[in-house]
């Protein structure tokens, strides 16, 4: 990672907490390198040193926003490192928050570059990729037995790959299930494999629709009755428990907080506020639905600088789902879910309800949850 001191410190702490610091190296630029425009030379030297000592199959160079002040060019940087180390694949990935509001924000660009390494020339129908999400659905998710039951032999996700060759094998998948809006653009660029958007949702009806579209695309049928009933039973149980309690939803729990809020409202939950980090096109309709149903719903943009002075001033609620919602509302009960991690389908709804029930019966200190999630704030 090539960055200034502050960014490097933040990422290094996160890497240590998450247990992957052994795979990270840092090149910290000083002010003179940025001003004189010579930071690129230092990054090339540092990258080449790593390659010579560790001989990796691939090296990802993450560059932060301060490098652009020095005139750094990503493609030129990649070519310089590659020219000196031809046996190693080299990717240069932006970590530029200025691009967050563009059509190609860092998370989207990263998905394009990583998936762009795969060769989808020779694909197989019995291999399915799960792309876009930070983690694969938990092993207990119904998606796996349903796919296995229709002849799928391998379900692959980046985090399940043990080696670089295992990752490259993802290029043999005939179907890509897109589990995050971050990977939609990348999936559309893969011409030789079908892509099926199955974006995060906590609505039983929308999960059913996901599986309907999936079954139609694969030319199979799924028996969903037992999974749907189990999810609905969980919802009924917890919706009874939360009667008389107020709820806030935050984007640190899910990339689609308005979908989650709408689902909860339809289950009978009293949702008072939603904290978001940008409203995607896929959620506009959900927001309009909520505003029509709940005229006094409070909606907060966590990217607004004014939010720094809003801690404890965003209304009091009994339950917060998402660390940012818990932080700003100072709720006594915080639901321990981070970015839909491990959650999908009917299983995801069940786990959400289980987590809400846990927060009611055994409230957990918010700061302890942040530590357990390996977050650095």
Helix-strand string: EHEHHEHEHEHEHEHEHHEHEHEEHEHH
User: Strands of the largest sheet, in order across it?
Assistant: 11-10-9-12-13
Secondary structure class reads alpha/beta
Sketch the major β-sheet: 5 strands, parallel
Distance between termini? 19 Å
Q: From the 3D coordinates, which CATH architecture of the largest domain would you assign?
A: 3-Layer(aba) Sandwich
Give the class-level CATH name of the largest domain.
Alpha Beta
Here the CATH topology of the largest domain equals Rossmann fold
From the spread of the alpha carbons, the general shape counts as globular
Please provide a written account of the structure.
The structure is a single chain. The chain has 15 helices and 13 strands. Helix 11 (257-266) links the parallel strand 9 and strand 10. It folds into 3 domains: 2-95, Nitrogenase molybdenum iron protein domain (Rossmann fold); 104-198, Rossmann fold; 225-372, Rossmann fold, CATH 3.40.50. The chain starts with a strand and ends in a 5-residue tail after the last helix. With 377 residues, it is of the alpha/beta class. It has helices spanning 5-18, 31-36, 39-54, 74-84, 106-115, 143-149, 164-168, 184-188, 204-218, 225-241, 257-266, 284-293, 323-329, 345-361, 366-372, and strands spanning 2-3, 27-28, 58-64, 89-95, 124-131, 154-157, 173-178, 194-197, 246-250, 270-276, 298-301, 319-321, 333-335. The longest helix is centred in the middle third of the chain and has 17 residues, at 225-241.
């Amino acid at each position: 990672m090539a960055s200034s001191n502050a960014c490097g410190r933040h990422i290094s702490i996160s890497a240590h907490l998450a247990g992957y610091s052994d795979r990270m190296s840092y090149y910290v630029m000083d002010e003179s390198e940025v001003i004189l425009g010579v930071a690129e030379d230092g990054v090339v030297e540092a990258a080449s040193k790593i390659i010579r000592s560790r001989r990796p199959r691939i090296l990802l160079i993450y560059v932060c926003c301060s490098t652009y002040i020095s005139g750094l060019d990503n493609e030129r940087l990649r070519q310089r490192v590659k020219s000196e180390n031809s046996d190693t694949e080299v990717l240069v990935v932006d970590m530029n928050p200025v691009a967050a509001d563009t059509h190609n924000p860092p998370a989207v660009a990263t998905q394009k570059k990583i998936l762009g390494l795969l060769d989808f020339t020779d694909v197989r129908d019995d291999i399915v990729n799960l792309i876009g999400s930070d983690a694969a659905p938990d092993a207990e998710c119904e998606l796996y037995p349903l796919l296995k039951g229709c002849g799928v032999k391998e379900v692959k996700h980046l985090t399940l790959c043990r080696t670089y060759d295992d990752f490259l094998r993802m290029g043999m998948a005939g179907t890509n299930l897109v589990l995050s809006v971050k990977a939609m653009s990348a999936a559309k660029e893969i011409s030789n494999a079908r892509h099926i958007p199955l974006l995060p949702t906590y609505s039983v009806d929308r999960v059913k629709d996901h599986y309907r579209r999936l079954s139609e695309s694969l030319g199979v049928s799924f028996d969903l009755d037992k999974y749907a009933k189990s999810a609905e039973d969980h919802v009924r149980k917890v919706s009874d428990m939360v009667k008389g309690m107020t709820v806030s939803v935050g984007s640190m729990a899910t990339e689609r907080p308005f979908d989650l809020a709408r689902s909860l409202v339809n289950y009978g939950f009293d949702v008072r506020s939603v904290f978001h980090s940008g409203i995607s096109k896929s959620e506009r309709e959900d927001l309009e639905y909520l505003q029509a149903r709940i005229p006094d719903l409070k909606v907060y943009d966590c990217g607004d600088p004014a939010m720094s002075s809003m801690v404890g001033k965003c209304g009091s609620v009994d339950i917060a789902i998402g660390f940012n919602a818990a932080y700003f509302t100072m709720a006594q009960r915080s639901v321990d879910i981070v970015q839909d991690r491990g959650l999908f389908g009917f299983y995801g709804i069940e786990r959400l309800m289980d987590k809400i029930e846990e927060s009611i019966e055994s409230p957990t200190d918010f700061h302890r949850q942040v530590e357990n999630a390996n977050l650095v704030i």
